[in-house]
Specification:
Blueprint: H1 2-24, H2 36-39, E1 41-45, E2 50-58, E3 65-71, E4 88-94, E5 99-105, E6 112-122, E7 126-131, E8 134-143
Antiparallel strand pairs: 1-2, 1-8, 2-3, 3-4, 4-5, 5-6, 6-7, 7-8
């Protein structure tokens, strides 16, 4: 009688272990794959008039590329931006760890303001990321056809 109870307990334990292993196999363990070429181009934030352009133009620092951002709701347009001044930034996208570093350039005294983001979604139509130190601050963009 005792051996039968032990076998039933062992079978139940084996069943739950196998079920747990099967369910664990359904959880993705790899990070999403992102590509720099998907990031590059013109993006519009959530149907607002705020735009960001990630270019292929190399900056003076190894690996960094130039980008620009502007808000047409404030009557600022891309053509109004002075090269390498307000509205411009240098960026580096580390696809292996989903880190997007932007260094915003300022006209006044050449100040550079770094911002680090974690990209959560990037494909040919959608870009989403949050500020590394403030997960509650998220951004969502849609890819635009060139103006």
């Amino acid at each position: 009688m005792r051996a039968c109870t032990f076998r039933k307990s062992a079978l139940r334990l084996l069943f739950f272990a196998l079920a747990g292993a099967a369910l664990t196999g359904c959880i993705p363990t790899t990070q999403p794959t992102f590509y720099l070429h998907d990031l590059q181009g013109l993006w519009q934030e959530n149907n607002t008039q705020h735009y960001v352009r990630f270019t292929t133009e190399q900056s003076d620092e190894a690996g960094y590329l130039y980008g620009r951002e502007w808000d047409e709701g404030e009557d600022i347009f891309e053509e109004d931006l002075v090269p390498h001044g307000n509205g411009w930034f240098k960026y580096l996208f580390e696809t292996d760890n989903q880190k997007l570093t932007e260094i915003h350039l300022m006209d006044n005294g050449g100040a550079e303001i770094p911002k680090i983001y974690v990209v959560t979604k990037l494909n040919s139509t959608t870009l989403e990321y949050y500020e590394k130190d403030h997960k509650a601050i998220t951004y969502r963009f849609q890819k635009m056809v060139e103006k």
